[in-house]
Amino acid sequence: MENKQIQPEKEHIHNDRTTIRLPMLLGLTLAGGVLLGASFFGGTKGLNTIGRGYSKYKEILQLIENNYVDSVDTDELVDFSITKMLEKLDPHTAYLNPTDAVAARSQLEGGFDGIGVEFNIYKDTVYVVTPLAGGPSETAGIQSGDKILKVDETPLTGKSIDNTAVYKAMRGKRGTDVRLTILSKGQQQPRQITLTRDRIPTYAVDAAYMADDQTGYLKVNRFSDSAFEEFRTALASLKQQGMKQLVLDLRNNPGGYLDRATNMADEFIDGNKLLVYTDGKDDRYDRKYFAKTAGQFEDGALIVLIDEGSASASEILAGALQDHDRGYIVGRRSFGKGLVQMPVQLSDGSELRLTISRYYTPAGRSIQKPYVPGQEGDYEKELDLRSKRGEYYIADSIKNDPKKVFKTDKGRTVYGGGGITPDYFVPRDSSWQTAYLGKLYSKNIIREYALEYANDNRKRLEKLPFAEFDKSVNLTDDQLSTMTKQATAEGVTFNAAEFGRSKEYIRTQTKALIARYIFQKSNKAGQNNEFYKIANTSDATYTKALALFDKARQLEFGPKEVGMKK
Fold this sequence. Notes:
Layout: E1 9-10, H1 17-29, H2 47-67, H3 74-86, E2 94-96, H4 98-108, E3 111-114, E4 117-122, E5 125-131, H5 136-139, E6 147-151, E7 154-155, H6 163-170, E8 177-183, E9 191-196, E10 198-201, E11 205-210, E12 215-220, H7 227-240, E13 245-249, H8 258-268, E14 274-280, E15 287-290, E16 302-306, H9 313-323, E17 328-331, E18 339-345, E19 351-360, H10 376-380, H11 382-388, E20 405-407, E21 413-415, E22 424-425, H12 435-442, H13 445-456, H14 458-461, H15 466-472, H16 477-489, H17 496-519, H18 529-535, H19 540-545, H20 549-557
Parallel strand pairs: 12-13, 13-16, 16-17, 17-22
Antiparallel strand pairs: 1-4, 2-19, 3-10, 4-5, 5-6, 6-7, 6-8, 8-9, 11-12, 14-15, 14-19, 18-19, 20-21
Helix pairs in contact: 1-4, 7-8, 8-9, 13-17, 17-18
GO molecular function: endopeptidase activity; serine-type peptidase activity
Transmembrane segments: 20-42
Domain PDZ: 101-163
């Protein structure tokens, strides 16, 4: 697999088994229909049938409440029954309880309410990675490396502490006060700081930098509320720096709002060409989206990176660029989500995300992969099946449906029925992936070592421009040995063979994290350019893309290229 950039958690991100599913659910249930709104719902179709079903359900629930032998939580029963009912529909129609609905919406909104700090859990203790610029924590003087021992009266130490507990303690309505018990490095006694929670912005653009004097790199992590404005600002900045060709990275981007995707496509596609259209059972949900403005980058070679984590709005953008022969798609086949959901907030704050239509690329492709209603488990395992049949490693293992053949503007063959197949396939690089590396990450060893290194050398490193930093910071084998000894002390048994396989990846990722901690304040909001400049050097898909701009130029200006290259 190409390098997945590992970064510290923010207070609005948590990684236990339950909460990992929430961002996945968010990405796989949010598509273009988000912006249609709930006002379209109505009508009287099937009211008699619905009324009979509702009466029966209410009667059974009342009997349970009044007569069942044990006490039961009827709200929990209702949530469970709704979830089971929706399993008879498509895999992306979903019900979110009030708590999950708020958390899911925050992923696509422009921010969240909290204290503004990124944290890391190491040795059963919560450490501050960095206070977010302009947030309450930075204003109060909280520093990288500070330990957060308590939030109000809730202790944040011990083996039971996890990201979810930290998240719940720190988050809260803006304007409310929270008291932190902090222990700073070199201090013997903790101190208490009272903060007032505020709105903390979140960002969609992870990086926007010049890879060389004419090549820009722009990574979008999701199509959130602020995504297009961030993207447009980043694109303008790159052009001002002399960009003539661009790598647009949509890998592991789960999607989001449709109009953010079409607006981005409009920046690349000229005229009034069709960008995407939707078709549902009800004509009210049928829409066509066209290019309508003079975009910033309608000329110039464009490469788009995708993988199996690119879904929904990512596929809308990649599909429009591919169908109009405007972007050269590099990587692996995308997820395959072509269903549109409409989110409807219910009276108790819960939310129904109901599939109301399918979307189609300009050539007429539905990229929704096959599913059987009621067999969600099989649907979720589809990515594992790709791996088992070798699709992540061999281009010929991609089995496109020969009955779903379409043509791009210039006559190239593309396929529907299961994601966007890239124009140029780049296999996963799994050579560095080992169980030992996974244990280092699970114990936060790499992140903590990078943070300690950054803090110990901060005064010297902050004076260096990035080019000098890049030359001077090169972790030695002795320093990596120190890291592995720390891991051993934390219960991670050293494995020489596996460490040897992962060694260069560990070296690169640690250096990238150090750069992130040193240069974060000098970056534009939300961007981690120095991190990606270093991490991308060992990213097989990225490095291959830089060598493919001749194909991207041929795609746009001729001669005609047909089929996927390997």
